[in-house]
Design a protein that fits this description.
heterodimer, A: 168 residues, alpha+beta, Umud Fragment, subunit A, 8-stranded antiparallel sheet, 33% strand, B: 143 residues, serine-type endopeptidase activity (chain B)
């Protein structure tokens, strides 16, 4: 009589907490670890080869922007890779639907429902220059703040690209 | 004892609120109504489909399945189409080819190209015909 009901109570509490956590992280915000140097110097500015797990930036990803997909030029977003839905990437939006984006050799039109993303560190970034415009439906959230490491805590600014975009 | 009851009520109402929250999440099947692009399989007058959101995450999706996807042309819209081909020779890696059953009016991969797998939101597993009419409604399985 004693132990089973205690376990059942704990199970019920865990279930409730689980449901609340899932809902909050899906609808409002979650915390994500940023790997790699494609967004240097915005994230992971130390380009040492041994980026161990503790020194990687942790950021706050807000999901409220997904209600109407109201995204702006210069927003840093998390999106599922078009070539592998299990991978997520972090890049900055350079072009929105209808824009003409200037790349090195070409001027590319961003089709409706898509966006053009690029990493801040152009030299080592796999982005829309390789896999093309990304459907907005793959965007999973917008990064608003850095939460770790403590000396770099702060908001992530919207940096509009200069001379790269001719809006429609 | 009273506290117990209140606590249980609070827990139940929080869980219910989370479960029925308006945004689609991955653990909850949803119902929706459709346009003419899937005739004659799914009709426009009162058919409602139940979409489960687990199969595509577990990789259990194959050609012939009816899926609900987020439109690549407008992220605020969702489409219900059939998976005609999975990745392979003609379809690039990480993508699927979708088509509506009513080819004349359907806007699908023939217009916007292969669809990234990440845009798939769920698989249709059941349809309810004449959902509005409670008396004559019946449930049929989607093959």
């Amino acid at each position: 009589m004693g132990t089973p009901s205690v376990l059942w109570n704990i199970a019920k509490k865990c279930f409730t907490v689980g449901v609340i956590t899932l809902t909050v992280s899906d609808l409002f915000a979650s915390i994500v670890q940023v790997r790699g140097t494609s967004m240097c110097p915005t994230f992971n500015p130390k380009t040492n080869s041994l980026l161990d797990s503790l020194s990687e930036d942790r950021v706050l990803v807000e999901k409220l922007c997904l209600r109407n997909y109201k995204l702006a030029h210069g927003d840093v977003v998390v999106f599922s890779s078009p070539n592998n839905h299990k991978e997520k990437h972090v890049k900055r939006i350079v072009g929105l639907p209808g824009d003409w984006v200037r790349t090195i050799y070409d001027v590319v039109h961003v089709p409706e429902g898509h966006c053009w993303v690029e990493g801040d560190n152009s030299a080592s970034s796999l982005d829309s220059r390789s896999f093309g415009p990304v459907p907005l439906g793959l965007v999973k959230g917008r990064i608003t703040h850095i939460l770790w490491p403590p000396h770099r805590v702060g908001s992530v600014d919207r940096k509009s690209p200069q001379n790269r975009v001719c809006a429609s | 004892m009273e506290n117990h009851g209140r606590e249980a009520m609070a827990r139940a109402s929080i869980s219910f609120a989370c479960y029925t929250s308006p945004m689609p999440t991955y653990y909850r099947p949803t119902m929706s109504v459709l346009g003419p692009s899937m005739l004659p399989t799914l009709s426009i007058t009162g058919d409602v489909v139940l979409v489960e959101r687990l199969s595509h995450r577990l990789g259990k999706l194959g050609s012939g399945d009816l899926v609900r996807v987020r439109s690549p042309l407008d992220p605020n819209k969702t489409l219900t189409k059939r998976v005609v081909a999975m990745e392979g020779d003609k379809v690039p890696k990480g993508h699927v080819w979708i088509q509506g059953d009513n080819l004349y009016v359907s806007r699908d991969s023939r217009h916007f190209g292969p669809l990234p797998y990440g845009l798939i939101e769920g698989k249709v597993f059941m349809g309810v015909s004449n959902a509005k009419s409670i008396v004559s409604g019946f449930v049929h399985r989607m093959s």
